[in-house]
Amino acid sequence: VADYQLYYWSGIPGRGEPIRLAFEEAGVAYDDVARGPEGNKVIARVLAGELGGLKPFAPPVLKHGDVVVSHVAAILQYIAPRIGMVPDGERERAAAHAIELTITDFWLEMHDVHHPIAMSLYYEDQKPESKRRAKHLIEERMPKYLGWFEQAISGDYVFGNTISYVDTSLFHTLAGVAFAFPRASARLAATIPKLHALHDRVAARPRIAAYLASPRRTPFNNHDVFRHYPELDD
Amino acid sequence: VADYQLYYWSGIPGRGEPIRLAFEEAGVAYDDVARGPEGNKVIARVLAGELGGLKPFAPPVLKHGDVVVSHVAAILQYIAPRIGMVPDGERERAAAHAIELTITDFWLEMHDVHHPIAMSLYYEDQKPESKRRAKHLIEERMPKYLGWFEQAISGDYVFGNTISYVDTSLFHTLAGVAFAFPRASARLAATIPKLHALHDRVAARPRIAAYLASPRRTPFNNHDVFRHYPELDD
């Protein structure tokens, strides 16, 4: 049993992936509990309050000793100083949290583009609305968010030459955008050169490269936040 | 000049209001800069990076000495220990942040119900989609979120008998829901008695009552997150 237990759906990278990537880059062990023998059943128990304290609203949930944290950005903010994935300064930590919360907002827009009416409906039941929303996402929101991430990069990484959880999260975000919207993504590439360089630099780091080549990395798929529906990519 | 400068659009309570309410309940002075002589022009300058450090993605932004923080939940997390609006324990603080981030998610759904296709379009340009989304919001999402807030209340307030920023935020959230969806809100009331009692308790606190009666409290209106379109409330 590792010091950290991550509870997140198996079968998708999803909102667990920024947390996995931070642990992987840090070389710190974690249990990805729902990938164990019990599978996703454990998530229902966690949402019912099995871990004690505040009942989580939704996964991911992280347990570390007595502390239970939920929400991606809050989990990363909690683990990062403990596993060496954020700079020391108060300014930098506030900036890292703000960037991760902005990534969270962007992911929700990347999700809602295929679910503009309701999460409880299938994509197939909200296709005309999705198509309408996708045009605005591609033309307005993607350039705005990705351009903002671009200007936040101060060196090889967001914080100069020191890698942090924000970089591993941006790596996965850019990969997700390219999976979901390959054509729009290709058109935007020239406007975000630093973000692309950061993506490639993160992918080439030895621990990340080993992780990406391992069975622990689940490929993107259409049950996830980032989904590829070719008809939306235009 | 107060120790804390809040930068948020004037004219709406908006996402600045949970921050104002925390300061008001604490009795701590803050400058609501865009309500000064310069008005909202100052926001454009802040978004362009005038405060230094990370350029904020969107208001609200808080400046405290050298530290600049953006995102509602991050600002509350930063100020609360300094102004006495959160309990001391690590578990409680993690829980407070998780609840505030869940409030943030709920507010986005309360916003997107009148903007399901694009923020850049008027409500009038996305009315059929709004009506379709509103049905799911009212039947599925409002009960889910409000029910989850209800079960998080452990005493008079979320954390027993100690008021925190989570309570002032929940007060405003419930008020916003009642403004936007008076009929759906009335139907749900019986299922969330603790939340309603908390709302009334917060409203009756001397500093909050004085604030609500002052010109500093901007009424809800249809330029805000919470909007009242009667046709969506059914």
Gist of the model:
Two copies of one chain form a homodimer. In chain A, 50% of the residues lie in helices and 6% in strands. Chain A has 234 residues and is of the alpha+beta class.
Give a description of the structure.
The structure is a homodimer of 234-residue chains. Chain A has 234 residues and is an alpha+beta fold. Chain A contains nine helices and four strands; from the N terminus they run βαβαββααααααα. Chain A has helices at 17-26, 41-47, 72-83, 90-112, 127-151, 165-180, 182-188, 193-203, 206-212; strands at 4-7, 30-32, 61-64, 67-70. A four-stranded mixed β-sheet of chain A has the order 2-1-3-4, sandwiched between helices. In chain A, a hairpin with a 2-residue loop joins β3 and β4 (67-70). In chain A, α1 (17-26) packs across α9 and α3 (72-83) runs antiparallel to α4. The N and C termini of chain A lie far apart (47 Å). In chain A, 46% of the residues are buried. Chains A and B meet through β4, α3, α4 and α5 of A and β4, α3, α4 and α5 of B.
Cα end-to-end separation of chain A: 47 Å
Q: Low-confidence segments of chain A, ≥5 residues, pLDDT <50?
A: none
Largest sheet of chain A at a glance?
Answer: 4 strands, mixed
Oligomer type: homodimer
Q: Give me the secondary-structure category of chain A.
A: alpha+beta
How much helix is in the residues of chain A?
40-55%
**Chain pair sharing the greatest interface:** A-B, 40 and 40 residues
Based on CA atoms alone, the radius of gyration of chain A comes out at 18 Å
Number of helices of chain A: 9
Order of strands, main sheet of chain A, comes to 2-1-3-4
Mean pLDDT of chain A: 97
The total beta strand count of chain A reads 4
Query: What is the global morphology of chain A?
Result: globular
Element string of chain A (H = helix, E = strand)? EHEHEEHHHHHHH
Estimate the strand proportion of chain A.
Answer: 5-15%
